[in-house]
Design a protein that fits this description.
single chain; 241 residues; alpha+beta; 7 helices; elongated
Length: 241
């Protein structure tokens, strides 16, 4: 019995056993590696597909937003906002009130006002004109209301108001650097030294000609110095947080 046990022990090949175990471990490790690679490739493929879908959705969303913006602009195209009218919420017939302002203060006759109302009982009046020419005439003659406390401006969309707000901020900072500067803010651009400056949420401040940005060097709203002049117009509005 002891001889058999001794024989079994002596016949055990430790190196062969370790080699077999090593080979088995290598096979299992290789199998695990292949599975992980397959899973990773599957995840990467899925992520790539998701990114493509997200890109398509973003494009569709932007297209839809642009479509809505165009509809809003069309709907507001012949509207004007009247501010500073005393006791506006006590006025019943706001259409007649707007006509009287046009006739008595702006010297405009036969102005056709379709609707006039105060949204949410606010202190402003939104006037909808039947003809675009009437709206433009009222806007042009609004300077005659100087010192009356009443002022008139276009009925802008939310996106247009955001753009105008940024342009007004830029105007203030330009004037803070140069009190004699002549700066005009339009609905979608700022005019300074015969150059147009624009703003959008995607690209920030920009111009058609990159060299025009030198006119704004030192403006606190933008990052001053030679470094920002080397950037593209797309990055300028994004650099300040």
């Amino acid at each position: 019995m002891d001889d058999e046990i001794e024989f079994t022990k002596s016949s055990f090949d430790e190196d062969s056993f370790m080699l077999k175990m090593g080979n088995l471990f290598d096979l299992q490790l290789q199998d695990l590696h292949n599975k992980l690679i397959g899973m990773l490739e599957s995840i990467l493929t899925e992520n790539k597909s998701l990114r493509a879908e997200i890109s398509v959705l973003k494009a569709e969303n932007k297209q839809m937003a642009n479509g809505i913006e165009l509809l809003l602009k069309k709907n507001k195209a012949k509207n004007l906002i009247f501010r500073g009218i005393s006791n506006v919420n006590e006025v019943g017939d706001k259409v007649t009130l707007i006509r009287e302002i046009c006739e008595n203060s702006l010297d405009l006759r036969n102005i056709e006002v379709d609707k006039a109302y105060s949204p949410g009982n606010s202190a402003v009046i939104v006037a909808e004109f039947l003809r675009n020419s009437d709206m433009m005439a009222v806007l042009k003659n609004s300077r005659k209301l100087k010192d009356t406390g009443i002022w008139i401006h276009k009925d802008l969309t939310f996106e247009e108001r955001k753009i105008r707000k940024k342009l007004v901020e830029l105007k203030r900072e330009i004037i803070s650097m140069n009190k004699d500067a002549r700066v005009l803010v339009r609905t979608r651009y700022l005019l300074y030294k015969n150059k147009n400056f624009y703003w959008s949420e995607e690209s920030g401040f920009s111009t058609k000609n990159k060299e025009d940005l030198k006119l704004l060097l030192g403006c606190p709203l933008l990052e001053s110095g030679d470094h920002f002049l080397e950037q593209t117009t797309v990055s300028i509005g994004k650099r300040r947080h």
